[in-house]
Amino acid sequence: TESLTVAELAKKLYREPSEIIKKLFMLGVVATINQSLDKDAIELIASEYGVEVEETIPVDITDLESHVTDDQAADLVERPSVVTIMGHVDHGKTTLLDSIRNTKVTEGEAGGITQHIGAYQVEVSDKKITFLDTPGHAAFTTMRARGAKVTDITIIVVAADDGVMPQTVEAINHAKAAEVPIIIAVNKIDKPAANPDRVMQELTEHGLVPEAWGGDTIFVPISAKTGEGIDSLLEMILLVGEVEEYKANPKTRANGTVIEAQLDKGRGAVATLLVQNGTLRVGDPIVVGNSFGRVRAMVNDLGRRVKDAGPSTPVEITGLNEVPQAGDRFVVVEDEKTARQVGEARAQVTLQSQRNEKSRVTLDTLFEQM
Ligand code: GDP
Ligand code: MG
């Protein structure tokens, strides 16, 4: 990299030339778009973006985060909270998800076919909340292991007739490790054997002390079956959202995470994406994990065709060359050519590392051969 024009450098840094010109101006250099920059100037500008200039590859295009555009503080607006429900088996996670969905989604949406896409949105007091409908533990463990953070708030369901169980503790640990606010839903309070006080007592031992006892953990007694307390639970989610002030920029190119993906006989690769920042539009060139394409069609959680999807919105898309994996990151890029380049390069890197993995002789493989 001996010299580059401002336009070429902007391209390598995935920035607008005008931004580079502005940066140069701030450094006291008046430049035009076609002006060529020497090595020192290139390094100086690159370092402003935290990019190290190497002789051959200035930017690792396979790093999806390098394609994410910066946000201006002024463009940030409030976005819906993204909520995951976790808890011990049979404590009522599925019943709660269904109950919230049935009471809130269908209001005013008569005739709307609700379909399972792995996430849904409800509206409460004119505000939206996004629920991840995938098994909570899977969402946390696989996605977090892959560096994707999708959940803002975790609801831990504890059956009032059963109390804290091993998977309850596991859920608490996941939420704590991810530093995500926890709301405790003490479920099945309709049951004669329900003992909510015991649940609070047991959770205190895990550092979750109810507000009533001087702590700061929100406990909401509910019955996922009768619907009692669910409105309070939703209000509490809104409250936490207000305190945490989750924000995003709807004006920028979209990025986010794959919630679910599969191959559909008729439609090809189908992926449910959670848009975490920006707005995703039909026609957008996109890289999703190691796959790429152009968003052909988008369907929302009500099964309706939509043209765009803003922050915290789950949508199902088609138009990818391959099926990505849950937890994969996605990024909209500037054009289809870039999408192909990045997608193919990423697939190549993965293939190469799989080959290396296979050819590596470990103790296990040695013993297998013996
Ligand atoms: P999950 O394993 O956590 O998804 O639990 P499910 O939602 O499948 O619920 C397990 C069982 O508990 C089912 O038979 C539900 O009908 C029942 N159940 C869930 N919530 C309540 C509740 O609030 N009250 C009562 N009485 N039963 C419930
Ligand atoms: Mg379930």
TrEMBL record:
Subcellular location(s) per record: Cytoplasm
Residues of the Tr-type G domain: 78-251
Residues engaged in binding GTP: 87-94, 133-137, 187-190
Residue numbers spanned by region G-domain: 81-229
Superkingdom to which the source organism belongs: Bacteria
Family indicated by similarity: Belongs to the TRAFAC class translation factor GTPase superfamily. Classic translation factor GTPase family. IF-2 subfamily.
Role according to the record: One of the essential components for the initiation of protein synthesis. Protects formylmethionyl-tRNA from spontaneous hydrolysis and promotes its binding to the 30S ribosomal subunits. Also involved in the hydrolysis of GTP during the formation of the 70S ribosomal complex.
Name under which the protein is recorded: Translation initiation factor IF-2
Source organism of this protein record: Peribacillus saganii
Gene behind the chain: infB
Full-protein residues shown: 166 to 535 of 742
